[in-house]
Design goal:
The two termini are 27 Å apart. The chain has 9 helices and 2 strands; from the N terminus they run H-H-H-H-H-H-H-H-H-E-E. By secondary structure, it is mostly helical. The protein has helices spanning 2-57, 68-111, 113-118, 122-151, 153-176, 183-211, 214-224, 230-254, 262-265; strands spanning 268-270, 293-295. The chain has a two-stranded antiparallel ribbon. It has 2 domains: 2-224, ABC transporter transmembrane region fold (Up-down Bundle); 230-295, no CATH class. Residues 1-12 and 282-291 have low confidence and may be disordered.
């Protein structure tokens, strides 16, 4: 019995940890990464500020090619993101579905372990467990592969932009000399192109992580908006406390010299109990019942309440 209770609490604990992990994922990969995006956008803003005012400080003409990498990256990155969004979302959903199946299978085993042991199904259950875990590993591997391919796109675009910038600006410097651009500014701008590619790459990685939290956020919003009976429970609890207080005051007036044991003398009252349910496929029709019972059993006695004629 103790083992069964412990295993049931473990199953409940797995479910609670599962939903806690979703909340932690929304906070760590969603909200915190949004702050990282703000940081990377600030870095790009500082680079844009330098590219705008550095030629003025060094008394050089402000050329539009300085802003080429800043504009080229989003023009190339955004279409790639839209093209890969469906694939990324599919592998992510598949991995999370497999994770839910692993959790459901563990919960099923914990709750039905007695049937497994009684009918000697350990071998079959082990094989099924291996298949579930193997399917999850495959889904996780596919997700990691897709994410890795996505993250390698920005470095390659950065390398292409660097090569294109060195080729175009280098030819201009060879033909026009320092009147077009000094060697120091040329080397600095090459480093800036690298920093721009790294910043856009970090933004893209952050957006991928934030995108992965949408499914968890959807689940959390769905759970938090499920209907509850907390208001009805609060009203019922307040009514029971008020009724118990009135009964205790009556007992105090009835037995003014009794200092203890008044709670044991209070009657057990069951009244206005309504039970109903909505019919569904394969169910009986809706039914409601109401009854009232008032009994004062003696201390240490046992009472049994039988309701006949009601499908409760």
């Amino acid at each position: 019995m103790a083992t069964a209770i412990r295993l049931r609490f473990e199953a409940l604990g797995w479910q609670m940890r599962f939903w806690d992990s979703k909340a932690d994922e929304v906070v760590s990969d969603g909200y915190m990464n949004f702050l990282n995006c703000v940081k990377y956008v600030g870095e790009l803003s500082m680079i844009l500020f330098y590219q705008t005012f550095a030629p003025m400080v060094f008394h050089r003409p402000n050329r539009y090619i300085y802003f080429g990498p800043m504009i080229l990256f989003p023009l190339v990155l955004l279409p790639f993101m839209f093209c890969r969004a469906r694939v990324t979302s599919d592998v992510e959903v598949e991995r999370k579905d497999r994770q839910v199946k692993v959790l459901s299978f563990k919960t099923f085993l914990v709750r039905q372990y007695r049937l497994v042991t009684d009918y000697s199904m350990r071998t079959g259950v082990v094989n099924d467990s291996e298949q579930v875990v193997r399917a999850y590993n495959v889904a996780a591997s596919n997700e990691s592969s897709v994410f890795l391919n996505n993250t390698y796109f920005c470095p390659w675009v950065s390398v292409c932009c660097e090569a294109l910038y060195i080729y175009i600006v280098g030819l201009q410097i060879l033909h026009q000399g320092t009147t077009f651009m000094t060697l120091g500014m040329f080397v600095t701008n090459v480093k800036i192109v690298t920093d721009i590619g790294q910043s856009y790459g970090d933004i893209y990685k952050t957006v991928l992580k934030m995108q992965s939290t949408l499914d968890s956020l959807r689940h959390i919003v769905w759970i938090m908006n499920l209907p509850t009976d907390l208001k009805q429970r609060a009203v019922a609890c307040a009514g029971r406390r008020l009724h118990t207080k009135q009964m205790r005051e009556d007992l105090v007036r009835k037995y003014p010299h009794k200092k203890s044991g008044l709670m044991d003398m209070e009657p057990i009252v069951i009244s206005n109990v309504n039970f109903s349910y909505q019919p569904g496929p394969g169910r009986l029709t809706s039914r409601s019942t109401s009854f009232q019972l008032m009994n004062t059993p003696s201390e240490g006695s046992c009472r049994t309440l039988l309701l006949q004629g009601y499908a409760v």
